[in-house]
Amino acid sequence: MRMRVKTSLIALLLLVLGMSEGRAEKSFKSLVGNVPVGNVTQTKPLLVPYITWGGDMATFYANGGLQTKVGSIFAKQGLQLQLTAGDNFTQQVRDYLAGKSPFLRGTFSMMGMASEVIGADSRTQGMVIAQMTWSAGDHMVIRTPMKSTADLKGKTIVLQEGGPHVGMLDDILNTAQLKWEDVNIIWAKDLTATPDSPAEMFRKNAKIDACFVITPDMIGLCGGLHNTGSGAEGSVKNARVLVSTADLSRSIADVYVCRKDFFDANTELVTQFVAGYLKACEEVLDLKKQYEAKGSPEYMKLLQLTQDIYGKTVIPTLEEDAHGLLSDCTFVGHPGNVAFFTQKNNLHGFAAFHESALNLAVNRGYAQTQKALLPSGIDFNSPKFIKYLSKITVEKTERFQAEAVQKEIEELSAGGGLDDRTIASFTIGFEPNQMEFDANKYSAEYKRVVEMADKYGNAVVAIRGHSDPTKTLLDLVKAGMGKGIVKRSGTTGNYNYSLNGKPMDLGAIPAMIKLIEAGYFDGAGEANPRETMQAALNLSKKRAEAVRKSILGFAQSKGIRFDASQIQSVGAGIREPFIAKPASMQEAMQNMRVEFRLLRVSAEAASKSDFDF
Questions:
Q1: How many contiguous H segments (helices) and E segments (strands) does the chain have?
Q2: Closest CA to 49 of 309, 337, 317, 384
Q3: How many Å apart are CA 413 and CA 215, to the nearest integer?
Q4: 3-state secondary structure of 148
Q5: Structure confidence by residue, pLDDT tens digits, 561-595
Q6: Which run of H or of E encompasses 462?
Q7: Is the C or the N end of the chain the one with fewer CB within 10 Å?
């Protein structure tokens, strides 16, 4: 079992539970209270907060425990640290303002919530010094029937007030092009393991359509990432995961923030801390690989240390819970920090996250005004990193195997499982005989595709070309009547058809396709519906690929870098018309479309690297 327990922002959760249609939340300033700003005077040991998350296991490893251990990575860097529990993020901010610790530890969206408070004084303005990880262990569980994120409109959703899922919900609403006002929110007091947590509220209240949960709760509700709840053993019947950070892999970014006055006076110390953390990430990942391949005593020591720090209530077992906690996060390492802070037009970089976090904080009422968070300006290409770390030139390769992805999409289409894997979808139309797709004409749609692909780093955007079935059906009728197996009765516009004496519904496209593929209409002369249907499929594939190339060119023209293997083109042909028997060109045009589907694909279709950057 994978596990993510992030009980941060507990002090934020003070509002009375109840329905709310997108209302603004309580300001972060009111929750923190009036805390006089003080100087950081204690530096030996220097207090560093941690939260309950796999990324912090690298911090434990680097420090050798809560106190810096002789011979540890941080000790060799000349640091003397005391790691302190920081799951209460509001208290973290109080300690930060008072000068007890110069650091904050949380997600980027949490830093955005606190930005107005910490930015009110130039001494405590937040400087983001490092990105640690991306989450892969947070989930939106829904009750069926819901086919995609667009179906969330008007639905009731429960999540923890002010927790890490606030930003995740915002990303999901953006994916569906919905607003907070389009959904009904119930705020839960706790994240997990209480009656006032989203999982328990979802389980007990059938009027709640969706909930945000961590991995253990997700497994309890539906049985696993790709499973559907049966209603047995505490699961919720028909519950399933609609969106997970296993796919929405660049939504929850965990970071360290440092006070500006402390950073300016202790740049060398802070740089050594960041370098030591990145070194620990490298070594922890190597130990994890050893453990998974043949076992590792050193890795088991880290798992034991994690259980000792968090306690057996949070981490009951080592090989399932402690290992699962680490497995639920994706480290970014040195390459990820270089990309996060310095790569231009990086849709999951500092500038993009900074804008979205501050906008969210103001729009949801956590802040009244935007107070900037600052990038630290640490030189990740200095000798302090380049000569110290071993994984600095990791090559970014294509994540998805085109042949495997296309085969999986085609199998899902044929087997009727495509909707269950769909996160979001939309279409564009085209004219008869159109084979070129101008990026200027479709720029809004292309921008949406590129942004979805980037945010959902572990999902695929399938570009599916669709054709109108009219010509195939006309040839079917001509061929069938020519062979004497199809009879027609009635008048123009109101014909009825029969096949070998039995009624035949031309609007039943799947049935017509089966008849064509079975050879019923072969050998009838010029009218050959099998060839017509195949030509429509080939043309739909060509159109889908033309759109894909146009999107890649659009991204390149904007200087946007993303994994091109995430966008795959396939043809659907005539199989899924909006209008099976068009009565006019206007109706036929509705079938002539290119569809974009954001899809979860199997692990076998993707490859993994040490870091996600």
A1: 21, 20
A2: 309
A3: 29
A4: coil
A5: 888 899 999 999 999 999 999 999 999 999 999 99
A6: strand 460-466
A7: N
SS3 string, 594-605, reads EEEEEECCCHHH
End residue of a domain, out of 244, 278, 307:
244
Report the C-alpha gap between 172 and 181 in whole angstroms. 14
- For residues 127 and 372, is the Cβ–Cβ distance under 8 A? no
Q: Domain for residue 329, yes or no?
A: yes
Contacting residues for 562 by C-beta, under 8 A, at least 6 apart: 347, 450, 453, 454, 555
Q: Residue 213: in which H helix or E strand, if any?
A: strand 210-214
Cα distance between residue 419 and residue 127, in whole Å: 43
**Is pLDDT above 80 for 190?**
yes
Report d(CA 506, CA 472) in Å as an integer: 10
Report yes or no on 523 lying in a domain.
Answer: no
Q: How far apart are CA 359 and CA 542, in angstroms?
A: 40
Q: Which two tokens stand for residue 27?
A: 């300001």
pTM of the shown model: 0.88
- Residue 424 CA to its chain's centroid (Å): 12
Measured over all CA atoms, what is the biggest interatomic distance in the chain, rounded to whole angstroms? 96
- What is the length of the chain? 613
**362 and 277 together in one domain:** yes
Smallest CA-to-CA distance from 572 within 463, 460, 420 is with 463
Q: Which residue has the tokens 């060509």?
A: 542
Q: What are the beta bridge partners of residue 186?
A: 19, 158
* E strand spans, 40-196: 46-50, 81-85, 103-107, 126-135, 138-143, 156-160, 184-188
**Does residue 181 fall inside a structural domain?**
yes
pLDDT tens sequence across 503-560: 999 999 999 999 999 999 998 878 899 999 999 999 999 999 999 999 999 999 999 8
Report d(CA 555, CA 541) in Å as an integer: 21
- If asked whether residues 51 and 126 sit together in one domain, one would say yes
Six-digit token pair at 6?
A: 């992030």
CATH assignment of the domain containing 180: 3.40.190.10
Q: How far is CA 501 from the centre of its chain?
A: 53
Q: How many CB atoms lie within 10 A of CB 606?
A: 18
**Does 13 have pLDDT greater than 70?**
no
The pLDDT of residue 10? 31
Across 16-23, average pLDDT: 34
| 155: containing domain | 138-244
- The average confidence (pLDDT) of the chain is 91
Most confident residue range from 173-182, 402-411, 418-427: 173-182
Cα-based angle 2, 6, 7 (whole degrees, multiple of 5): 135
Q: How confident is the model at residue 245 (pLDDT cuts 50, 70, 90)?
A: very high
Residue in the block written with tokens 């996600």: 612
Cα 40 to Cα 36, 576, 606, distances in angstroms: 13, 65, 47
Read off the tokens for 329. 């996060």
DSSP H or E stretch at residue 494: strand 494-499
What pLDDT, on the 0 to 100 scale, is given for residue 77? 96
CA 96 vs CA 101, 155, 161: distances in Å: 5, 38, 22
Please give the helix or strand (H or E) that residue 240 lies within, else none: strand 239-244
Sign of the alpha-carbon torsion through 556, 560, 564, 566:
negative
Tokens read off for 61: 């490893």
Residues 6+ apart with CB under 8 A from 502: none
- 232 with 265, same domain? no
- Give the separation between CA 485 and CA 501, rounded to whole angstroms: 8
